[in-house]
Design a protein that fits this description.
The complex is a heterodimer of chains A (242) and B (239). Chain A has 242 residues and is of the alpha/beta class. In chain A, 38% of the residues lie in helices and 25% in strands. The longest helix of chain A has 16 residues. Chain A is globular. Chain B is mostly helical and 239 residues long. Chain B has a single domain, classed as Orthogonal Bundle (MetI-like fold), CATH 1.10.3720. Chain B is 78% helix and 0% strand. The chains are: A alpha/beta (242), B mainly alpha (239). Chains A and B meet through helix 2, strand 6, helix 3 and helix 5 of A and helix 6 and helix 7 of B.
C-alpha cells in the first residue's frame, strides 16, 4: 500500500533523511519511533507529499507520490492525516470542519457530507459538540474530531504525526482508544508516536529511527523483546523504565 | 481675541448647500476609493504570499511603489502627468471629455495608494495564520486556491479588522487632499465658505465636526463587523 524506496532529504546542506526504505501493507499498523530530531515526522510527511524529497521514490496504492507533476491533491484526498496540534479550522464549527473537504474535494452534497460527518462524530463520541467551535473544546476532543475529519474522506490509509504529544496526560487515553479501534477494524496506519503501550497493543511492526535513518524495522514483539541495535536498546530503556 | 462669532452663516442656504455638497463628495471619494483599495489590496496582499516568485515580486513592487510616494505627489502625477504620458487620443479624452475628472482622478489615486497599505495588512494577516492549518488543508486534498478561499482568507480577514478600521478612517481623512486637484469636497467647501464670509472658525469647526461624525460612524460599523465575524472562543474576548 505504502512503498517507501530509498528516500533521502536535505534541508540545504543538512541531511534529514538517509536512504530510508520500508513498506506498509494493506491493513497493517506500523509505529515509527525514535528520539526527537530523528526524522520520523519528516518521513511521514513525505508519504503524502507535504515534504518534498530529493532522492528515492514513494508509491501509495501504486501511484508515485514523488513523480514530477504527480496529482498530489487527488492522492492526498485518499490518505488521511492527523497532526500533533490537531489543526482544526478555528473559524468553522465542528460539523463544517468535517464537511469542507468532503464537499470541495470529493464533491459530495451538503446533506451527504453532513450525514457522513454525523456518523463519524458519533463514532468518536463527539455527537453533542457538532455545533461548537474548536477552541471551545479540550485537546483530546479536538484530536478526536481531527481523526473523524480525516476519516470523512474515506481514506485508504491514515498517517498520524505524534497525535498525543500535545495532550494532557488524562486526554491521551481517549484519543488512543479511537486509534486502537481504528487499527482493530483493519485500517492501514502509519503512526509516529512515543506511546509504546499503543505500539505493543496494536502495531504489527515498529520502525526505529535515529539521525534520519531507519535503524530497526521489525515485528513488534521482536522489537520490544530483543532490539538489535545499541541505539534502540538505549532508547527503550529510557522510555520504558521511568 | 476680538472675533465676531456668527454661527448662523452655516445655516444660510448657499453655505449650507456647499457644506452638504462637500460632505457628499467626501463620502463619494472615500467610499469609491475604499472599494478599489479593498479589491486591489486583497489581490496584491494575497499575491505577495503565493509560492509563485514572479507574482510575489510584482506584488511587492506594487506595494513599494505606491506606499513610498507621498499621496499628494501621486494625486498630481495622476492629474497632471498621466494624461501627457498616455497615447495622445486617450490623453485628450482624459483632459477634455472625461466626466468629473477631479473626482475620477482622486478616486484612482487614493484607491491605489490605500490598496498598497491594505495589501500589507492582508499579507500580515495571512502570515499570522498558523502554517499547520494550510498543511491540514493540503493533506485533505484542497487545492492552493481552495486553501486561500476557505481557510487563509476567512481567518486573516478577521485578524485584520482592527488595522483595517484605522485604514478606513484614514481614507476619509486623506480624501481631503483631493482639494489640491480642484475637487470641491468638504475641506475645499469650508475653505470657500471661510473666504466668502470671513467666518473661518465656524466653517472649519463645521468641517471638523462632520469629519469626526463620519469617523465615529465608521468606527461603530467596524466594531459591529468585528463582533459579527468573531470566532467563538478564538481571538480576543468572548462576544
Amino acid at each position: 500500500m505504502i512503498d517507501i524506496h530509498n528516500i533521502s532529504k536535505w534541508y540545504g546542506e543538512f541531511r534529514v533523511l538517509t536512504d530510508c526504505t520500508t513498506k506498509v501493507s494493506k491493513g497493517e499498523v506500523v509505529v515509527v519511533c525514535g528520539p526527537s530530531g530523528s526524522g520520523k515526522s519528516t518521513l511521514i510527511k513525505c508519504v503524502n507529499g507535504l515534504e518534498p524529497i530529493q532522492q528515492g521514490q514513494i508509491h501509495v496504492d501504486g501511484a508515485e507520490v514523488t513523480a514530477k507533476g504527480a496529482d498530489l491533491t487527488a492522492l492526498r484526498s485518499r490518505i488521511g492525516m492527523v497532526f500533533q496540534h490537531f489543526e482544526l479550522y478555528p473559524h468553522m464549527s465542528v460539523l463544517e470542519n468535517l464537511c469542507l473537504a468532503q464537499e470541495k474535494v470529493l464533491k459530495r452534497s451538503r446533506t451527504e457530507a453532513e450525514e457522513r460527518a454525523r456518523a463519524l462524530l458519533a463514532r468518536v463520541g463527539m455527537s453533542e459538540h457538532s455545533t461548537k467551535y474548536p477552541s471551545q473544546l479540550s485537546g483530546g476532543q479536538q484530536q478526536r474530531i481531527a481523526i473523524a475529519r480525516s476519516l470523512a474522506m474515506d481514506p485508504i490509509a491514515m498517517l498520524f504525526d505524534e497525535p498525543t504529544s500535545a495532550l494532557d496526560p488524562e486526554m491521551i487515553k481517549e484519543v488512543l482508544d479511537v486509534m486502537v479501534e481504528l487499527a482493530q477494524e483493519g485500517m492501514t496506519m502509519m503512526v509516529v508516536t512515543h506511546e509504546m503501550g499503543f505500539a505493543r497493543k496494536v502495531a504489527d511492526r515498529v520502525i526505529f529511527m535515529d539521525v534520519g535513518a531507519i535503524v530497526e524495522d521489525r515485528p513488534t514483539a521482536d522489537f520490544f523483546d530483543n532490539p538489535e541495535s545499541e541505539r534502540a536498546k538505549d532508547f527503550l530503556s529510557k522510555i520504558l523504565n521511568h | 481675541m476680538d472675533y465676531n462669532w456668527n454661527w448662523s452663516v452655516l445655516l444660510e442656504e448657499q453655505y449650507l448647500d456647499w457644506l452638504i455638497s462637500g460632505f457628499g463628495w467626501t463620502i463619494a471619494v472615500a467610499l469609491s476609493a475604499w472599494c478599489i483599495a479593498i479589491v486591489i489590496g486583497a489581490l496584491v496582499g494575497v499575491g505577495r504570499t503565493v509560492p509563485n516568485r514572479l507574482i510575489s515580486t510584482l506584488c511587492t513592487a506594487y506595494v513599494e511603489l505606491f506606499r513610498n510616494i507621498p499621496l499628494l505627489v501621486q494625486m498630481f502625477i495622476w492629474y497632471f502627468a498621466v494624461p501627457e504620458m498616455v497615447p495622445e487620443d486617450m490623453g485628450r479624452w482624459m483632459k477634455r471629455d472625461m466626466p468629473n475628472p477631479e473626482f475620477v482622478t482622486a478616486v484612482v489615486a487614493l484607491g491605489l495608494y490605500t490598496a498598497s497599505r491594505i495589501a500589507e495588512q492582508v499579507r500580515a494577516g495571512i502570515e499570522t495564520v498558523p502554517p499547520g492549518l494550510s498543511a491540514a488543508g493540503k493533506a485533505h486534498g484542497l487545492s492552493l486556491s481552495q486553501i486561500y478561499r476557505y481557510i487563509l482568507l476567512p481567518i486573516s480577514f478577521r485578524l485584520i479588522v482592527p488595522p483595517l478600521t484605522s485604514e478606513f478612517l484614514t481614507v476619509f481623512k486623506n480624501s481631503s487632499l483631493a482639494l489640491t486637484i480642484g475637487l470641491l469636497e468638504l475641506t475645499a467647501q469650508s475653505q470657500q465658505i471661510a473666504e466668502y464670509t470671513f467666518q473661518g472658525f465656524e466653517a472649519f469647526t463645521a468641517a471638523t465636526v462632520i469629519y469626526v461624525c463620519i469617523a465615529l460612524l465608521a468606527t461603530v460599523i467596524m466594531i459591529l463587523l468585528e463582533k459579527y465575524t468573531r470566532i467563538p472562543g478564538y481571538v480576543g474576548k468572548e462576544g
